[in-house]
Amino acid sequence: MQQPYTFQVLLDELSMEEGESERDSSVTTSTTCAEAYGDHLYVGNTEGQVLHFVVDKESSSVNVLVAQGQKSKHQVVPSYSIASRQKIGTLKKPITNLLLLPQIERAVVLCNNTLFFHTLPNFTPATSRRIKEVNAVFQDIEKEGHTEADGSVSLTVLAKRLIRIVSISREDVKLIKDVDYSGAIAGCQRGSIACVANALTYDLIDVDNIRKIPLIEITQGEPVKNSSNLPLVACVGEDEFLVTSGPPGGDNGIGMFIDMNGDVTRGTLMFSQYPKSIAVEFPFVAALSEGGMIELHNVLSQQPTQVINTSDIFSSTTLCRVSRGCSVTISSLAEKLAMVELRTVPKSTTCQIPSEPSTPLHIHRRMEEIEVAQRISTVSARIFVAGGQKVGCLVTTPQLIHLDELLGNNEIEEALVTAKESFKTLEPGNPQAERIYHELSYTHQKAGFLYLGRTLFDDALRVFKLGNADPRLLVLKNTHGPDVSEDILTELRDSASQMLKAYMSFFREKKGFGSVGVGDAGYNLFRVVDYVLLKILLNSTTFESKVELEDLIDGGVDCFEEAVTMLEEKGRYFLLGRLFESKKFDRDILETWAKLIDGTWVDQEFQNGPEKLTNFLLQCDDLVLIWKYGTWLVERFPKLGISIFMDDRISRSFKIDDILQELGDKSAEAYMEYLEFLVFKERQLEPKYYNELINLYITKILSSLEDIGVRANIEATVDHFRRMPFTKPSYIEYLSTLTPSTNPKIHEFTNTRVGLLNLLQGVFDYDTEAVLKRVQREQYFLLAELIILYGRLNRHAEAIRLLSHDLKDFEGAEAYCLNGGTTISSFLRNDRIDVEKTREDLFSLLLVDYLSLPQYEDRLVQTCRILDRWGTCLDVNMVLEVIPDSWSVDILSGFLTSTLRRLVQQKREIQITKTLRRLEHVNASVALIDYYAKEGGYLETEASQAA
User: Fold this and answer.
1) What pLDDT is recorded for position 349?
2) pLDDT at 54 over 60
3) DSSP label at 3?
């Protein structure tokens, strides 16, 4: 059974010291009562003295350190030093009672049936006023520590013939009222109800309404003269009183619980002897009997729970319930709750655990932990024991002591149930809340390790979570596991790993909470958590673990260096890249991916590497990395690499010539594509880019023409185009509509050729003569290119003849004439004014060329076509001169009709223009005449002209 209290001596071997040689050596000084608040302790003795002690904090701290260093299992009480000694009254009469009122800095002393008033904390006389014939004094328990509205404190004084209500303030002592009640010698009060006793009976007195309720007699049975049973009264709980009664001889006694209506509320307490004094600290009642025996009873169960024998220490005289008590440090509790630095060595070594560091930082941290442990291991002792030359106290035994005993006996479930019940009583504002929390944490942690020892991993996980165990302890326990066979260890390993993983994941959610450590302490803690969790997940092959591992990596880990090493050793390079991503280490990310792409490292999880690297570079801001890995990518994957340098943001960050130089060294394909980007999209106006691109196109085309299949394809294409009906597109448009060839060489040639044709027909300024020389090497296969170049060199007759005779590209020929020889595509139109004259000349050349076509049908159809569509661009006289005389007028009817209409229209337009001019002249003349009429004339002479 748990022992609720332990007895501890506070003051030992007290003496009078001053004047000790003057007193009778046969008279022994004995303590009679004690009171305390804060760091102050006041003790009354039989010599009529009140001794004032104060806590020596330096000595108390040293005591705690010594006790912890010696593994003490006892309480460490405050060390007191005497501050003053005050003589009460003129006679050496015992001090009967001390009542402290710190809220008004006053103390009340009952000595020789007289009340004296002193100051706090120095205990000097506060006033010369006394109250005599007093048997007892007490305060309403509900008002302890409080004052009335006027700042005073009300006390109830039991006088010889009256119950007196007295008001005490810093300035004065006043009588409030008297209540008739003779012979009262003991009592206590709750609210307006006072439970008082005379030599024979107990009564409830309503001091406000002056009403009395008789209770029981003090001595049961036949009255005995001079009975030794003294009335004892105490307040219990929220609305109860405890009174004692017993037989005349005092062999035993009972305690009865009475409510404020005088009714019995609980079962009785049975004392082995009639008590000399009692004190209540709910839910326990302490009763002191002859011989120094202190019996402790539980109010709730009315059962005895503990007996403390103080006779071996000193002869106890009385129990005193002090309102505030003193603080006592439980050293054994502090040892269990103190945080200590974990120092270990590998299991395989024979080295001893290193001694505790003695650096100033470590000493400072150790002192901080000692202070915290001391604070939360400090309990308040509120039941004092006085007698002889000593003062002791009953110190509450912390719940942890009992729980630790249960765990030590392997009664784990009982300990956990008890801890749970204790937690239920933890209410907000409880001053012991911090200590109780740490006690529960210790209990759960120790229970968890006991479960681990039994390999009950699920139970261990459950209580570890409740106790917020330091994860490093679990790692240490798993590292230094039981010495069992390898077979058994293998069977346990999976379960232990799952438990450890679950707890590490649980604890990791607390990252950032101040309760688990911040700064370096928190970093070092979660560094271990992340390391262990990463190691467990890397060794697991389940899909769930794979997802958890990726989430862990993506979220970032504190054990970064260890994680890099571990992932490299395991060959998990894809996750290594993700780890670098979580830290935004761009250089390391790119280096990792590059090794995976070029095969230096192999990891099947890494997919679409070139695309990932490309997308990353497009978002990157480091130009050095963009250049390094962009050009690296160009060399291996030109299409992807060049897309980086064609990005709007990146392209503006580098010089064009630098990019071209690098691309030219890395990849011809990328070099050409970048030139196309500059010319067609960026519209760069520098001729060197156009010429370079044209030369690249021609080089590629000439190289392709070395292939027989390509040459045959061109011949077939031209032949097919020539045989198409007259309603066909231009040759260039025809090329762009061809179905892509399945032959990659032909397909590539066609695309390149279309690009070259578009470029040659553009407004770009390039070296036409140089290009023509290269094209003429394969002019039979490059007729369209040759035609465009002839046009730019004004060799129109040759160009038109190639179009009409060689290609039979009549649509292209007409487009050529319409655009002044700059293009053979009907989709492109040149509307410059300087083209109009050239246009007339070209259509005249085309008409003559059409008339020379070898096939009559071709001559007739194309001549009629040009006359009908483009007759306005032809001179009538020239047409009539070149048209064969053998052709009927009907063939020219359309042309002649439109020409006559145009001539008539032109004549009428000229007439209208002349008429409008005459009208303007007449209007101007009329305006001039009106002006002269208005302003009048004047004579102009040589003199006026000179002026």
Assistant:
1) 37
2) yes
3) -
